[in-house]
C-alpha cells in the first residue's frame, strides 16, 4: 500500500506483492472461498443449513430451481471443502442428513456482515451484479 492511500483498510495480514503472480492468486484460500461462495447454490445452501440440519429432500424443496444433480454436486463440494458434514443413519432406507461443520458455522458471521453491507449499500451492491 502506498503512503498516499492510508485510508484503505488492510484486508489480510499478509501484504501483497507489488505484482501478484497469477499462480499465487489462484492458490490463495480467499480466492477459493469466493469462487465457492460465488457459485449459484452454495451460499443459499450454507444459509439454510445454518438454520438447522436438513435432509436432502428438505433442501431440494426449499431451494426453488435447483436440480437434484446440482444440489448433490453443491453438497459434495461443500463437504469436500470442510464446510458441510454428511451423516448417514442406519435406517431402512438409509437416512442422510446435512449439517454445517464448525468452520461452516464460523463462516456464517462474516457472511452476515457481507449481507448487512449489501443491504446498507443496496445501490452499490445492485451495481455489482450488472
Task: Please give a structural write-up.
This protein is mainly α and 130 residues long. It has a single domain, classed as Orthogonal Bundle (Arc Repressor Mutant, subunit A). 55% of the residues lie in helices and 11% in strands. It has a three-stranded antiparallel sheet with strand order 1-3-2. The radius of gyration is 18 Å and the shape is globular. The mean pLDDT is 87.
In short:
This protein has 130 residues and is mainly alpha-helical.
Primary descriptors:
7 helices, Arc Repressor Mutant, subunit A, 130 residues, mainly alpha, three-stranded antiparallel β-sheet, 3 strands
Outline the secondary-structure elements.
Blueprint: H1 22-27, H2 29-37, H3 42-51, E1 54-55, H4 56-62, H5 68-80, E2 84-89, E3 95-100, H6 102-120, H7 122-128
Antiparallel strand pairs: 1-3, 2-3
Helix pairs in contact: 6-7
User: Structurally, how many domains make up the residues?
Assistant: 1
- CATH class membership: Mainly Alpha
Largest sheet: 3 strands, antiparallel
Could you name the ranges where pLDDT drops below 50 across 5 or more consecutive residues? none
The CATH topology annotation reads as Arc Repressor Mutant, subunit A
Overall structural class, as computed from helix and strand content, comes to mainly alpha
Taking the alpha carbons of the first and last residues, their distance comes to 29 Å
